[in-house]
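Minutes, project huddle
Topic: does the predicted pose make sense with inosinic acid bound?
PN asked that the exact inputs be recorded in the minutes so nobody has to dig through chat later. Recorded below.
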Amino acid sequence: MTTSRGRHYTGLQQIAVIANSGLTFRRTYNAIARTVAKATDMNGCRILLLDSKKEYLTTVGAYGLSDLYIRKGPLDARKSLPEVLAGNIVVVTHAPTDERVQHPEVAKSQNVLFIAGIPVILGEDTIGELRIYSKESRELTEVEKDFLKASANLCAVLLDRAQLAQFRDRIDKSRAKATEVSTPPRIAVNPLKPTEFAHESEAEFAGLLDFYQIEWLYEPRSFPLAWNGAKISQMFTPDFYLPELDMYVELTTMKQDLITLKNRKVRRLREQYPDINIRLLTKKDFMKLLAKYGYGSMGEAKVEGVGRVLYSHTQIQRRVRAIARKISRDYAGERIVVIGVLKGMMCFMSDLMQYISIPVRVDYMDISHYSGDGEVVKITRDLDSPIGGQHVLMVEDIVDTGMTLNYVLAHLAAHKPASLRVCSLLDRKARRLANVKLNYVGFEIPDIFVVGYGLDYKGEYRNLPFIGELRQDWGGHSQARLTA
Ligand code: IMP
Ligand code: MG
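Predicted holo structure (tokens), as shared on screen:
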């Protein structure tokens, strides 16, 4: 017992040194994995981090595990020992037959018998997992559990520090940029994913994916391509996996000799894994591909002023369809009048009504705001047809203070419709002044100014096929709020 405690004490001491040694992110975690494995007498250890949507686990450091085991494919966070992510230590004593293990066949082929998962918790949030592996059947002692918890805690603190460093790095970069003239805004890599990329182009690609809100995993899987007897002699690890598109991506430059080599590998992979969808992409190809998948091809010029994409074209369409289905169900057997206030709702209302399956009539109003003593709203274009006794659905792009909506609803209610409901694409509760009820909402957004998909800043950006955040440094916001 004393010797065991001594070993764990030394382990923690080593982790503290590693943590403070200024190693790169991946090396730090590899070294911690090694220390943890040695101190607990395990054959292997790895540290996994959850992506920002908490859907996938990615390996950030490992020791004693084969490349094949580490890159056995993206780990679905909901399927791979989900109790760990709920905050518990989970012990699997016979991995090949345990139904909680996501790739039991791989565990079997690697002779892994024992697996334990320890949650990596930052504050109150589980952000990842520490896993240990043994080829022998065994148990975890209380002392070992305490040691593992302490190690997991240190991993969490280190991740927090890595994020802070990336955040600083970004600030430094944007400061440097601010002093240069007319450089287009650079797209930053998601700080929640402290990935070490082998090439600058990969970091750039990841930045683009983040910008378009496309989930990605970096090198999550290696594919054995050739064998020498029972030993793997050739392996291929594609750069990225995009879960939403179920696609592997290998980036390529225009260098001809490299293309030939990669082409050969990709061809091999396709032959041996016909179900795997893999693309060899140059940056130009990638932009074209984005357009094809409905993420909109956005020229550099249009990115100007937009900090990040909040909702992609595909995400918006999915949500609009869902709302339209709900409306069609709620009003089943009725007919409705859909009313919009120009011009912000134009994209939303146009898409929404096409997905509604009950009879719809459409009407518009236009208003103007006067700022005299307090803000006064005035109707400059009223409805074409009467709405008395009819079911009215008011459609808005965004409800901010709620003052506009409040005024328009009072005006409509005076015409005595049979019912009056509100459907708004966006809801920004943070600035609400008027107490208005929203019956259907697309997305709740934080207190940021947004443009695109009908929403404007000084009359522009309405044509963007996505909703993006207007950069804070892109002129004042107060004026934009007045252009309805
Ligand atoms: P409210 O009267 O303060 O609720 O303002 C609502 C109107 O202001 C919306 O219909 C929009 O036309 C405009 N607006 C508010 N926030 C934004 C924004 O973030 N982007 C673009 N327009 C906005
Ligand atoms: Mg409006």
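Observations noted during the meeting:
- The chain is about 35% helix and 25% strand.
- Residues 262 and 280 are 8 Å apart (CA to CA).
No decisions taken; revisit at the next huddle.
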